[in-house]
Amino acid sequence: MTTPLPTSASPIEQLRYVRLGTRDLPAAVDFAERILGLELIGRTDHEAYFRSDYRDHTLVYVADDPAQRSIGLEVYDPETLARLGAALAARGLTVIEGDAEATARRKARNLLRVPMAGGYELDLVVRPLQSGWRYHGPRDAGITGLAGVALRGAADASDHAIWTSVLGGTVSDWVGDAAYIRFTDDAHHRIAVHPSTARGVLAIEYEVEDVDLIMQNNYYLRSMQVRIVDGPGRRPASNQMYVTFAGPDDVLFSYVCEGAAVDGKRRPRQFPRVRGSFCAWGSDTDVPEYQ
Predict the structure, then answer these.
(1) Given 126, 159, 185, which residue is the final one in a domain?
(2) Does the predicted TM-score (pTM) go above 0.90?
(3) Which of 243, 214, 245, 205 is nearest to 227 (CA)?
(4) 253-290 burial, b if ≥16 CB within 10 A, otherwise e?
(5) Does residue 47 belong to any structural domain of this protein?
(6) 3-state secondary structure (DSSP) of residue 216
(7) E strands in 37-109
(8) Which of 16, 41, 130, 140 is 20 to 30 A from residue 158's alpha carbon, by CA?
């Protein structure tokens, strides 16, 4: 018997993971453990899986072209997945059904892969694995879980319609044409899509316990000579405090905390595309999408 999809719910249950291609897997593994503070739970010659919370994994480094980047999104059930695949195909997108090997590597029961115009792929998965063990990183970074992903969307902002009208996301706020999109919980956003001439994943964001952990991690990163590219600061739209730093293969990472809850009743606000709309504290950045 098919379990019905709850009314008014997005077909996307939650953000699950990010998979990143890398030409130097050992260096990427060292970064994820020693710098970022994630827990390595499995490694082969080709892949390394990392935990940050109750999800089996939230980050995977794959020995592959760094242009190969995908975002894992959990879908309600196989029937919803099939309907979602048909809706994406009707929009002219290529929908690839995952074979047994690809699905097993995602640690899920069902998989559809969808290349997006922004240069990243969607992994739509059903029944991805949970972990029964408490997350414990190699250092006390204070991480509580994967919070969100910022994407370099298509320059013409065509990605927005896919994320909202097909995937069921709701725009919480706009900064210029950058959209901050939420799904089923009350977080301000889980996905941010920044129209850009560059391609792929812009930043992966991990939530930490509080402001103290933002600052402690900021000092730790500086002591390890990791390049801080944005912050510490506070985002006017989401009210998140953050610090953003450079990772391997031109992917950024952020620690975030706090942030405003959104109850779904207010309309999205429009902020101008100026630096003050990205950081209320006036911190400098060399990231084009945040300038």
Answers:
(1) 126
(2) yes
(3) 245
(4) bbbbbbbeebeeeeeeeebeeeeebbbeeebebebebb
(5) yes
(6) helix
(7) 39-43, 47-51, 59-63, 69-75, 96-97
(8) 16
